[in-house]
Amino acid sequence: MLSRRQIVAGGLAALAMPSIVRAAPITNQVTKRLVVIGDSYSDPDYDTSNGLPSTPNWAEILVSRDRAVSMVNYARSGATAMTYAGAPARGTFKSQLDLFLANPRYGDDDITVVYLGYNDIARSTDPQARWQTLAPAKADFRVGVDRLLTAGAATGKRRLLIAAVHDWSRKPNSRAEYLPRTREWLTFTYDFVNKRRATHKGMICVNVFRRFNDVVLRPQAYGLNNVTTADPARAATTALYYNTSHFGAKGQTILANEFSSAFDLVCRTR
Questions:
Q1: What is the SS3 assignment for 116?
Q2: Distance CA 29, CA 31 (A)
Q3: What are the structural domains of the chain?
Q4: pLDDT tens, 158-196?
Q5: b/e for 200-220, b at 16 or more Cβ within 10 A?
Q6: d(Cα 84, Cα 140) in Å, to the nearest integer?
Q7: Which of 128, 116, 129, 114 is CA-nearest to residue 203?
Q8: Checking DSSP bridges between strand 111-115 and strand 31-38, what pairing results, if any?
C-alpha cells in the first residue's frame, strides 16, 4: 500500500484550488472536443483487439454523457511514456503526439488528457533493460507535456489534464517492484504538474490515485465487494478488475466520474 501521507497529502496540497473559484457554475457540456493520449485504459479498441466483451472506457462515457461533444483518441494498448526503437504505431507518448500535433486544430475550449505511466511501471523486467529505471520515461514525459503546452493545450479556455495513475502495486498480478516504481512515478507526476502550473494555470492534475485508494479502502461505498482479484463475470457490477491488469465496466465508470469532477474544475477555472 502506498503511503497516503507521503504521496497524497504531500503531493496534492499544492494543487488545491483557491476558494474564490468555487462559485462558478458547472454546465454539462464542458468542451467541444476531448483529445486523449494514453494506453489501454483509454484505448477504445482495447476490448475488441483482445477478444473481450466491449466496455466503454472513461472517455467514451464522458462523450455519451454529453460532457464533450466529440473526441479524438490516440491512445493505444501498451503505450509508454518512454520513446524506444521498434515501438508499434501510437505505442509511445511521442508517436501519439506526432500524429496529433501534425494538425492539432485546437478549438477555443479543447480539453487534452494525458493518461500514461502504467506500462513504464510494469516493464521493469524488459529483456533489453530499457525500463530498468524510470528516468528515461520521466524525461520523455516532460518533453511530451512541454510540446503540448507550447502548442497551446493550456492556453485561454483550453485545459491540459494530467492523470496521476492509481496504485499499480494493487492490481491482481502485481509484482514486488511495482510498489516503489508506482510511488516514484506518482511523486514525479505531482512535482512536475506543480512546477508547470507556476506558469501554465490551465494544467490540472486528475487524481486517479487518490480516488482508487478510496475505492480500495471503502469498496462498499462504490457498490463493490471485490477489489483485489479478476472477476470478469462481475466486473460490471461488484468487482473492480475484469482481468489481471484492467478495470471492468464498473471501474471505468468510477474513472469517468473522476474525470467528470476534473471537468467541473475546468468550468470553475475558466
A1: coil
A2: 6
A3: 29-269 (3.40.50.1110)
A4: 999 999 999 999 999 999 999 999 999 999 999 999 999
A5: bebbbbbbbbbbbbebbeebe
A6: 10
A7: 114
A8: parallel
